[in-house]
Amino acid sequence: MAYSEKVLDHYENPRNVGTMEKDDPSVGTGMVGAPACGDVMRLQIKVSDDGIIEEARFKTYGCGSAIASSSLLTEWVKGKTLEEAGQIKNTDLAEELALPPVKIHCSVLAEDAIKAAIEDFRGKAGNTDDPGNAA
Amino acid sequence: MTSSNRRPIYMDYAATTPMDPRVAKKMVQFLTPDGEFGNPASRSHAYGWTAEAAVEEARKQVAALVNANPKEIIWTSGATESDNLAIKGVAHFYGGKNTKKGKHIITSKIEHKAVLDTCRQLEREGYDLTYLDPEPTGLIDLGKLEAAMRDDTILVSIMHVNNELGVIQDIGAIGELTRARGIVFHVDAAQSAGKVDIDLSVVKVDLMSFSAHKIYGPKGMGALYVRRKPRIRLEAQTHGGGHERGMRSGTLATHQIVGMGEAFRIAQEDRVKDQAHVAALRDRLYAGVKDLEEVYVNGDMTQSVPNIFNISFNYVEGESLIMSLKDLAVSSGSACTSASLEPSYVLRALGRNDELAHSSIRFSIGRFTTEEDIDYAIAHVREAIKKLRALSPLWDMYKEGIDLSQVKWAAH
Questions:
Q1: What confidence tens digit (pLDDT) does each residue in B310-350 have?
Q2: Optimal mutation site among B320, B388, B399, interface A, most CBs of chain A within 10 A
Q3: What are the two backbone dihedrals, phi and then psi, of residue B290, each rounded to the nearest 5 degrees?
Q4: For chain A: N or C, fewer Cβ within 10 A?
Q5: pTM value?
Q6: How far away is chain A from the Cα of B360, in angstroms, using its nearest Cα?
Q7: Looking at this predicted complex, what is its ipTM?
Q8: Spatial separation of the C-alpha atoms in residues B136 and B134, rounded to whole Å
């Protein structure tokens, strides 16, 4: 299994590893995957009052590609609005990391993770009318 | 301490072994114009006679390791071919037009794919298969095996030592059960020959598969033991010039055969020494990691060969662990399943939950492994586990006291 340099870099030096306070109203938590599949990602975002993602943290149980996908995702979402973050495509992650076909599902899981974190944030009281939400 | 110039430390002996230099030295004498390159089946000149003599000498060496008669050893291209020949050979002979004794075959869920896939093929041909579940230790329960035996059972195939776990099945006891019922008993001994003492004059095994490359011999070479008393009949699977008593046609590869013979000769001489060496190293490795919390040994350490050591580090995924151990060559699940995304079917058959199956590492060591290798492995495993658990949300949940089996996962 030859890993791309970018995957190895994220694996050796993962960005934004950690935990945020789940019950904090400005935090959205997405937990996706299952131990049965060998991949579980927990992604957390801290959202400012004007709907910008200020901070992101992740923890991943999974292979090198899964760790790299979630690490890269936390880099990409910082500074974005919730809407922008929700539009990140797994194909972009996969391309950036040069994931082989057998590992594409890791990037799909990362896309699911950010969507789940956004949904969790929006579901909290007082967060449904943030300016970034056009729908 | 990582060096891109240095090759990783090899701890995947169960996947394959390097040839013992003595074996390679012997083999090259049978290749080039100045060597003994003759076809062993050439009856009319010295080139053939010399090659034939070397082949028969090697046959004696292989037979000697397992206390069999040389006439009972058939050369093949490896244990996979031996398994195919044994299982299909028996099935077609005893279940075909000749005797119509029956069409039921019993094997286990943790056999090597060479056995399992052959059995699946026989199912497609109309044979009736029973795949026994092992106990959580990997051992086959003799009571359950006996209960599965029927009047129309013609074959039982159970491996001696499992390649993923290292557990040793009681083939002596199984042989008693099968012989009493006139059922043919086949054993895949690819991982046991040269490691576990085998005496075919005592154990009632009818067919036994051997592999050369698992015991410091060449790849692409194996043998099948076919008992003569009582006589076991097989339908040949490879037809041609009638070599090997008609059981396996094809010009014999003298250099390969000589290599296997030499490897088996050395194994017989050094078996006790080799096993003591690896047992001490395995114990050292286990002692170096067992205090890491949530560490599970897969298999049964008391009924196991010491050279195969399969261990799960809970809440850490196996591939990411192997990636972290880049200066160690180990495997997660068997080498044959490494291309798939499925967790090891052997560990699943033991009833291990999926996290433990995904987080397993097999360390398999051998004749050339050193204490330094083990100490290096311990240091790196400890460091890797620490780092990966710090990255793992499952480890966090475990630490918080959450029961992971109760969680509703949002799998896609």
A1: 999 999 988 888 888 889 999 885 444 455 656 788 998 99
A2: B320
A3: -70, -15
A4: C
A5: 0.89
A6: 11
A7: 0.89
A8: 6
